[in-house]
Design a protein that fits this description.
alpha/beta; about 350 residues; 3 domains; binds zinc ion; single chain; Zincin-like
């Protein structure tokens, strides 16, 4: 997510505003297929129902080798996975299976269950040594979630298991596929939940979860803007502004319920009530269900605020309260801070 240079982002934003987002999607996919390092970025995915045709073209272009197919059971559902034939990468079939299982388990650790009974996952080969990016949709005709993920030929077991991309995409299945005005909400949820789920699976340390928030959340704040996040095309505001919404919502819920409930209870209620990628729910419907679970209006009013106006948060003060102290490329977590127990409940394994 953070590998793309600022200049490239500016160019993308300009193109986006000029051409409209769907055209940009086509461009991003084309370049990814060509394996251009220019597009060696995982953040170039925007959930949308309009991309399946493009993916079909991508499959023809990048996967002429016959695919392997496997079914992987997960709690609450099954993954129907295809990947290129053997020998295209050093990672073994077992490595891919573990990557798929761990990614799904990370989602299950946050939501209690995988959100959809049936999900089709197509793995495509691309250049590079990492998981490049993924895209999530819902296939109404076949009643299944779809995730396309582009994996570099030089990946190995470690780079697969260190990658956040597939977990991020799976989190998108837990919430309605939203319109462009609300992309920030869906991306914020995926950005916030993915590392927590992976930390609970032992794939990340809790320090790394907080370090990434310390480094990432400032991208969601822009003191020069008065506009809210509605319809934003700024990747920093979309991903990290949305993640900031989630962190604030989590803290508000935990404060209001004396740590009995957290954002995960609210989001679980949405997904388990049917407000997942299969639904046509609006964000308002989903967040109303979330607030009913919490017992008071927290998410819906906060969402409306983030939609309509720039929100400023004193992050330094927030880190002090949470006991998150950044130092160089690391963080130290203090156990004597006012909200240190709340902080550890956020990342801790649910009992
Ligand atoms: Zn996403």
């Amino acid at each position: 997510m953070m590998r793309m240079g600022v200049a490239v982002i500016k160019v993308l934003q300009a193109i986006l505003q000029y051409m409209g987002r769907r055209r940009l999607m086509a461009i991003s996919i084309s370049l990814a297929i060509l394996g251009s390092p220019f597009f060696d970025l995982s953040m170039s995915e925007f959930s949308s129902r309009h991309r399946i045709a493009l993916h079909t073209q991508a499959a023809v272009a990048s996967n002429s080798v016959s695919a392997l197919r496997m079914k992987i059971p997960v709690k609450g559902g099954e993954l129907d996975v295809s990947l290129p034939g053997k020998g295209w990468t050093d990672a073994t079939l077992a490595d891919f299976q573990d990557w798929l299982r761990f990614s799904a388990a990370a989602v299950v650790s946050y939501y209690g269950s995988f959100p959809l009974r049936n999900t089709r996952i197509r793995i495509f080969q691309s250049n590079g040594d990492t998981v490049e990016y993924g895209e999530t949709n819902y296939d109404d005709e076949n009643e299944r979630g779809t995730i396309d993920v582009y994996v570099g030929r030089r990946v190995n077991r470690a780079t697969l298991l260190n990658s956040w991309t597939l977990t991020h995409e799976m989190v998108h299945l837990t919430f309605p596929i939203v319109d462009e005005d609300d992309v920030w909400l869906a991306e914020g949820i995926a950005t916030y939940v993915e590392p927590i789920g992976r930390a609970r699976q032992g794939l990340l340390s809790k320090e790394k979860v907080w370090l990434d928030l310390v480094e990432g959340l400032p991208n969601g704040l822009n003191p020069r803007l008065r506009r809210g996040l509605k319809g934003s095309s700024d990747w920093g505001r979309i991903y990290w502004g949305g993640a900031l919404f989630c962190l604030l919502a989590d803290l508000k819920i935990r404060s209001a319920t004396k740590n009995k409930l957290g954002l995960e209870d609210a989001l679980r209620a949405v997904s388990s009530s049917g407000g997942n990628a299969a639904s046509d729910w609006t964000p308002e419907q989903a967040l109303a269900v979330a607030d009913r679970r919490v017992g008071q209006p927290i998410l819906l009013p906060l969402y409306k605020r983030f939609q309509s106006q720039a929100v400023w948060v004193d992050l330094d003060e927030l880190w002090r309260l949470l006991g998150v102290h950044a130092r160089a490329d690391d963080v130290f977590l203090s156990d004597s801070a006012p909200l240190s127990s709340t902080r550890d409940l956020i990342t801790g394994v649910r009992q």
